Amino acid sequence: MAQTRVQNSELEAAIDEVTASYGSGFEINNLESAALPNKRAVIDAFNHLTPVIYMGFYSRRALDRHNLRDSIGEHLYPAHGTLVEQIGRAVTYEERSGRSAVHSPDWSEQVVLRLFRRIPELRNILNLDVSAAYEGDPAANSIEEIVFSYPAVRAITAHRVAHVLYEEGVPMIPRIISEYAHSETGIDIHAGARIGSSFFIDHGTGVVIGETTDIGQNVKLYQGVTLGALSSPRSRDASHSFKRHPTLENNVTIYAGATILGGDTVIGAGSVIGGNAWITESVPPGSKVFGRMRE
Strand pairing partners for 188? Predict the structure, then answer.
């Protein structure tokens, strides 16, 4: 018992020390966390949207034209309520912090409704992405196998949804969705990246795609590819508008481990970049690059 009392006393002292650290002025001392979005709720909402996009792969009952609408509604209703609340929290928090202009009371709901109305468009683009995976990977036995098992499909699906919210100017929520996909797949796609249709990431682990990356149509990346920024001082005012990451034009293939850096770097249409290449300057259309290119 005496030892237990000593341990409890030491534990209480540790709690006191941790509590005192919140008076230190650290940037992470956020005592208004109840006003922040709930990460688990955002992920839950996204996980309601995924079955809506691929309903035939997620339904637990037989689907037909008579019950399809009800099945979609069973996911969109809870996703709607959760996203409206969480986007509202994010926006209100940013407004109170002085990092955002004041929005109208119904802004969050209108954003969610616009996202939902774009789901048919997202389904069309993702259908092209899945088809590109099937055509581009001889190991793929079926479309069903790709949707069920390919991490790239999960990462790209999350990106397509997160990018819509990013374009709407929603704070925090797009990054929560993209980083959830990152943690699940090992593929890191910033919600701000603009990516054309028929996009395929083969294997995928270790791929990094930065915020201001532009990717054209029918582009294929292999594992370990980095589309990144050259090291430069951070400008808070221009961080989202300054082009820091490369542009890949249509029909480009980037092999495993290649690193392409810089906002002025353009990989011309139809180019092939070999494995482990290091590129910091543009290459013309139709190029074949192997080895290292330096500034």
Answer: 208
pLDDT tens for 45-59 read 999 999 999 988 887
Residue that has been written with the tokens 């910091």 in this structure: 280
Give, to the nearest 10 degrees, the angle between helix 39-53 and helix 173-185.
70
Looking up tokens 């925090």 gives: 172
Query: Mind listing the pLDDT tens digit for each residue in 243-252?
Result: 999 999 999 9
Q: Is residue 42 scored above 90 in pLDDT?
A: yes
Domains of the chain: 34-186 (1.10.3130.10), 193-295 (2.160.10.10)
Query: Do 55 and 71 meet the contact criterion of CB atoms below 8 Å apart?
Result: yes
33 Cβ contact list (under 8 Å, min separation 6): none
